[in-house]
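Weekly structure sync - notes
Attendees: PM, LS, DV (DV joined late)
Agenda: review two folding runs queued last week.

Item 1: First target. Sequence and structure tokens pasted below for the record.
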Amino acid sequence: MSRLAQLPASLRTALLERRALKVIAGLTNFDAASVERISRAAGLGGADLIDVACDPALVQLAAEVSGLPICVSAVDPELFPAAVAAGAAMVEIGNYDAFYPLGRIFDAEEVLAITRRTRELLPEVVLSVTVPHVLPLDQQEQLAADLVVAGADIIQTEGGTSAKPFSAGSLGLIEKAAPTLAAAHSISRAVSVPVLCASGLSSVTVSMAIAAGAAGVGVGSAVNKLNDALAMVAVVRGLREALGSAVRATV
């Protein structure tokens, strides 16, 4: 039986129907008040999953205020078991956006090593792995395939930090999303597991991610950079509606 069967039914269905919405609080965001605001907005706005930093207290907080399944993100496998014990439904290796400004680059071999160690520690837990966008697309495809062999249940794309949008409005939002959309298109055709398209997305581009082959999207800065709780909820609802429109368009 697939490990994905262990996920809550609502999240499984969202992935199957290719409309999953993950709100990302941030791999390095250990601010409890911030995580609480983001998690509450995710729950009220209709998200399917919240991605928080790998900390047991944050797992419990996010679950309590949102009522949603929790994913924890880290690049150190040894941190995952405690978060799973605290109630995390799945674990995520990456994404790596927070590390690039520090000059920290993750290559294919390191990501594979982290994946294998995580699978050793947590053989039955759902595991999502981000493919580094710094790799050429053909190498991203190969790594994604290798990660599935190593035990990844979900592949996530990234690319927002490498985008160089130069236009205003919707065109600029499409330019910002282009790298992760391209990765989702390539990787979704190289693997049989669900692909989550993340990094640099907005309500303008989440439907493009689904059209590119993704089973869902992960959105961080469009929500977690806001300071107003009502604005956060409004953005999540807008993302939810955009995904719903994308699904209807494919039926």
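Item 2: Second target, run right after the first with the same settings.
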Amino acid sequence: MPEEPQIRSGAVTTLDDIDREIIAHLHDNARISNVDLAREVGVSPSTCLARVKSLRDRGVIVRYTAEIDPRALGYTLQALVSVRIRAGARHLMGQISDELRRQPEVAQLFFLGGAEDFLIHVRVRDSEHVREFVLNNLSANPAVALTETNLVFEHHSALSAGLRTPL
């Protein structure tokens, strides 16, 4: 498969098939040993280690993390909250984004192009908790024009997370 340029923070880097395989395996299991990862992608352990270091140095691999089941922490409900900011308050979008990202209920925050400005994925204890979150963090803010809350019945992460190039 031909090499394809990837863009991260304005910098262009090229990923070949081995880089893509390494990324896919690390996405599936970030705790895989270097020896096992090397075996999976068909390179020597020293080559694999150098490739992973290069991916980190180039900003392709940003961090390693653990995926936690929110129910284990008492968060039994998830919701997606769409937010529209008032036209006269557009200059506050960075500040609003920073404030929202600091809230413990916020799992993900998306800045959107389109009718809505933000989409917030929240993890909460129950419906009262999501109501409190919206009232305290959004409705009380004079810059917020509109919110719409949708409850999440099921949430699944994509198996490839868009990291495997389609054939």
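Discussion on item 2: The helical segments are 17-28, 34-41, 45-57, 93-101, 127-139.
Action: LS to circulate a short write-up before next sync.
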